[in-house]
Amino acid sequence: MSAPGTHAVTRADRADALGIHQPRLPRWAPAGVAVTAAAVAVAVGLGAGLASRVQWGLIAALLFVAGLYAVSARVEGARTARDRLATSLVWGAFLLAVVPLASLVWETVRQGVKVLDVYFLTHSMNGVVAIAPGGGIYHALLGTVEQVLIATLIATPIGLLTGVYLVEYGRGRLAKAVTFFVDVMTGIPSIVAGLFVLSVWIMGLGFGYSGLAGSFALAILMMPVVVRSTEEMLKLVPNELREASYALGVPKWKTILKVVLPTSIGGITTGVMLAVARITGETAPLLLLVFGNPAINDNPFDGAQASLPLYIYEQWANGNAASYDRAWAAALVLILFVMLLNLIARLIARFKAPKTR
């Protein structure tokens, strides 16, 4: 009886003896190709007079992919070279997506921390000259929280009940029509929702500009996301759970309320939070409906009101250094707010998901 590990050693020895051992590049080969590609890219950039470092990076990436494929094909064979090529393209696509995002976050943080302090978070722009430093975003932050909260209270029950109908009750032409219109609403531009509310709520019914009008437009944008996420989560609930409840004599509505929804509540909550994060940064409908206000207006049902996206747009449009600093700081606060919502969604999904062994 052979000792443990003998089989692995004998297989390797047998492969070497038969001459079928596949040659491999040394571990430092990809790093060496990367350094060579970077040096050649710098030389090409300097020689061609390319001032942008982004162009140098793209040239280096192309040279790295081509060089590694050529070296691998010569040493390891075409099959391994294609595998390395696919791996390089995947990593390249990943870096191509991450680098702009990281650059955006870094630039926002670098520019936004200049005026971001307690004073900036607790004061409004009432009485502050646009070209002068000072002022804050309290009025805009309060408006964003109120408008998003109202939109969530409107869109979540409608979207949840629509998703339940499509999965549990929807049959025939009505369900197909609802699905079609939900798909259409998913792709409508936000300005269209703003124009619809403007024509119906303000121009048609005679109501004034307010945070409530902006919430209506945000709710329209939020509803299809909630419907789709609810529908997909309910489809993941096993039918055996429904059948077991029916076998015990539980009515269908109570089965949905007590079995189906609690099972999928984690995913549904995540979808709602992601929909909230999506509407938080909308600007176009707020330009038409909320109208902006430099003073604090804590009543979303009466009068013009500020919001963070609209505040950023207005400050950037002023075109001076002090306004630019306020716009960057407000953008940083908006990013942190959205990141907080996504973090809450992930935590809820983790703790509310069904426990499995």
Features:
single chain; 357 residues; mainly alpha
Describe the structure in your own words.
- The chain has 357 residues and is an all-alpha fold.
- Helix 10 runs antiparallel to helix 11 (252-280).
- The protein is flat, with a radius of gyration of 29 Å.
- 76% of the residues lie in helices and 0% in strands.
- The chain is built from 14 helices and no strands.
What is the topological layout?
Layout: H1 6-18, H2 29-48, H3 53-75, H4 78-112, H5 118-122, H6 138-169, H7 172-186, H8 190-204, H9 211-235, H10 239-247, H11 252-280, H12 284-289, H13 308-318, H14 321-352
Helix pairs in contact: 2-3, 3-4, 4-14, 6-9, 6-11, 6-13, 7-9, 8-9, 9-11, 10-11, 11-14, 13-14
Q: Sheet bearing the most strands, described?
A: none
Q: Give the integer mean of the pLDDT values.
A: 86
Category by helix and strand content = mainly alpha
Work out the number of β strands: 0
Order of helices and strands, N to C?
HHHHHHHHHHHHHH
Strand residue percentage:
under 5%
C-alpha geometry: flat
Helix percent reads over 70%
